[in-house]
Amino acid sequence: SISSVTSAASFPAASMTLISTTTASSSSTVSITSGIDSTYPIYVFKFINIHPATDSSSADAELLFQVDTGTNTNYNQAITSTYFRSQHDESGSSGALGYRTSGDLAQGTGFQKLAEGQGADNDQSLSGTLHLFNPSNTTFVKHFLSNVTYSHHGDYTMNAYVSGYVNTTTALTRVQFKMTNGNIDSGTIKLYGIKDS
């Protein structure tokens, strides 16, 4: 019974804090250039209905990200990553789970794929998360972990898992998102900070 409880002051506060909301509208890039600092040990980006302007059946339109330090805007930090995905088509005739060498980086300084083969039909989009761990730390490399679900241009549902590290001990301060081809037609990216447990 909790009938005798008179105070809840010691109960923990909510662990996630909304820092910013960015809405894409025919955007060539979406850059988050503030709010990433030493305030939180974990930052979470939530992707809500990210819709590409270009369909991947005609030209690659896949969500990418890169990071940078200080006030730099080159977005070319060295990343080592791993990428695998599962898939299942609308007809129920084809399903698969596999590693994607076309999605990983080995000390690459290009943008990291978070998805492959996105569709741009009116009802197709991508949603999911990207975790960035301790970006302000100046001792260790910066780990990240992404999980997104999206509609493939071939009418598959796809679930992509990407993880890795940014190979720098310099504090990260900014993140940029874009498509491999074309604009981000619409969608929302929310940035949250997670407090220490």
- What portion of residues is helical? under 10%
Characterize the biggest β-sheet: 9 strands, antiparallel
H/E topology pattern: EEEEEEEEEEEEE
Count every beta strand, where a strand is a DSSP E run of 2 or more residues: 13
Based on secondary structure, the structural category is: mainly beta
Computed Rg? 18 Å
What is the topological layout?
Blueprint: E1 16-27, E2 30-32, E3 42-52, E4 63-69, E5 79-89, E6 95-99, E7 106-108, E8 112-113, E9 126-133, E10 142-151, E11 156-166, E12 172-179, E13 184-194
Antiparallel strand pairs: 1-13, 2-12, 3-9, 3-13, 4-8, 4-12, 5-6, 5-7, 5-11, 9-10, 10-11
Describe this structure in words.
There is one protein chain. Strands 1, 3, 5, 6, 7, 9, 10, 11 and 13 form a nine-stranded antiparallel beta sheet that branches. The model has no long low-confidence stretch (mean pLDDT 92). The protein starts with 15 loop residues before the first strand and ends with a strand. Strand 9 (126-133) and strand 10 (142-151) form a beta hairpin. The protein has 197 residues and is an all-beta fold. It contains no helices and 13 strands.
Brief digest:
This protein is mostly beta strands and 197 residues long. 0% of the residues lie in helices and 52% in strands.
